[in-house]
Design a protein that fits this description.
By secondary structure, the chain is an all-alpha fold. The protein contains 17 helices and no strands. It comes from Streptomyces nogalater.
């Protein structure tokens, strides 16, 4: 089957590396995804009540991917610095409060509203309170990804991976960084594909990192599409149709069928990427199964890589896959 028409329109920049919607995106994306407890805690914090967040994080424990996801989402609110500062004042030495403050400062620094040095110091202070927790390291990685230099990305990733080798968000950030390096030789020989496949192979069989090769293709697509509309159209036609791309899409879809993880906090990000790739590759039947599982939980990435209105791109692809477009 020939590929579907590319989901391209006026190009936009990549979303904030923290996972927050980029400025100007419709206010329909929710970084909390389907985590109802997280949404409840976020709403309570907005009203000045800390107990729900305290209980949420205590209950999360050392589920590091979930802890990183929840703290990152709480920290995205522009008021999070105030919330976390008040919490830390009331409970000096509280690792949860210190980590929330660190990530809130990271987000402010990413937005250009805070000095990066203060955010780095806050991450170091939070790490000292909870040495096993990789989440302060996630803050440093987010900051390095947004503000550079690239060498800081690799250092932060290595330190974070020492604490949690399968950290989902960290691997996504690293892959996004690698995808931006210049390619040499054949398009499907780019180093980001090798790195993603190696990480997936080294992870346990049931690890969501199995989908990382699709993330690599989506991130490389972002880089190619950003070179201009003409090249983006050509890239859309070719990028997902090469032999390696076809193999990766098939293997990752098969993995999802066998190992689907309803409980992983960031699984909807993986499913959006896989649905995007299958849609671009003209494989509507497989994409339809993913869209059914995704429901209304669209994520800005990767749909923002193809269109200035990522929600419209998502809905167009979903309607096409489900036979309504």
């Amino acid at each position: 089957m020939p590929p579907s028409p590319p989901l391209l329109g006026p190009l936009r920049a990549a979303p904030d590396p923290s996972g927050a919607p980029a400025p100007g995106a419709r206010d329909t994306f929710d970084a909390a995804l389907d985590d109802a407890e997280l949404r409840t805690a976020r709403a309570a914090l907005a009203q000045g009540r800390r107990q729900a967040a305290r209980s949420l994080l205590a209950h999360t424990g050392d589920d590091w991917d979930r802890r990183g996801h929840r703290l990152t989402v709480l920290a995205q609110d522009p008021r999070a610095t105030t919330w976390a500062g008040d919490w830390l004042t009331a409970e000096p030495g509280c690792a949860d409060a210190a980590t929330l403050l660190a990530l809130a400062l990271v987000h402010r620094a990413v937005r250009g509203e805070e000095e990066p040095g203060r955010a780095r110091d806050a991450c170091a202070a939070a790490a000292a309170l909870a040495p096993a927790d990789p989440t302060p390291g996630l803050g440093l990685l987010l900051l390095a990804r947004a503000r550079g230099p690239h060498s800081a990305v690799f250092g932060a990733f290595a330190e974070l991976r020492r604490r949690h080798p399968e950290h989902h968000h960290a691997h996504h950030l690293l892959i996004a960084c690698l995808a931006e390096r210049p390619g040499r030789g054949r398009a499907e020989a780019h180093e980001v594909y090798d790195a993603a496949e190696l990480a997936a192979a080294e992870a346990p069989a049931d690890s969501p990192l199995a989908v990382l090769p699709v993330i690599a293709y989506a991130e490389r697509y972002r880089v190619l599409a950003a070179t201009g509309p003409d090249h983006a159209g050509q890239a859309a036609a070719r990028h997902w149709s090469g032999p390696r791309a076809r193999r990766v899409l098939g293997a990752c879809f098969d993995w999802w069928l066998e190992w689907e993880h309803d409980e992983h906090p960031r699984r909807l990000i993986d499913l959006n990427h896989l649905a995007f790739g299958l849609s671009c590759a003209g494989r509507p039947a497989e994409a339809a199964a993913l869209f059914q599982r995704i429901g209304d939980h669209a994520t800005p990435a990767p749909w923002a890589y193809a269109h200035r209105d990522p929600l419209a791109a998502f809905r167009t692809a979903r309607a096409r896959a489900l036979g309504h477009g």
